[in-house]
Design a protein that fits this description.
The protein is about 45% helix and about 0% strand. It has a domain of about 35 residues. The chain is globular and about 30 Å long. The protein has three helices and no strands. By secondary structure, it is mostly helical.
Amino acid sequence: MAGKSAEPWTYEALDAFLANPKAAVPGTKMVLATKKAETRADILAYLAKLADAPVPFPAP
């Protein structure tokens, strides 16, 4: 993920990465794409729970 480390990982960026890793971060080794938006939202909600100071979710 060289070249992306300085960019913030927003919910939108994470969603795009989970939907299509190779398009979001060329050169990534992640091959598993999560096509269902609901599944990606569940993953993002789980990750937010792990954060000490989670960023609020964007408005739908």
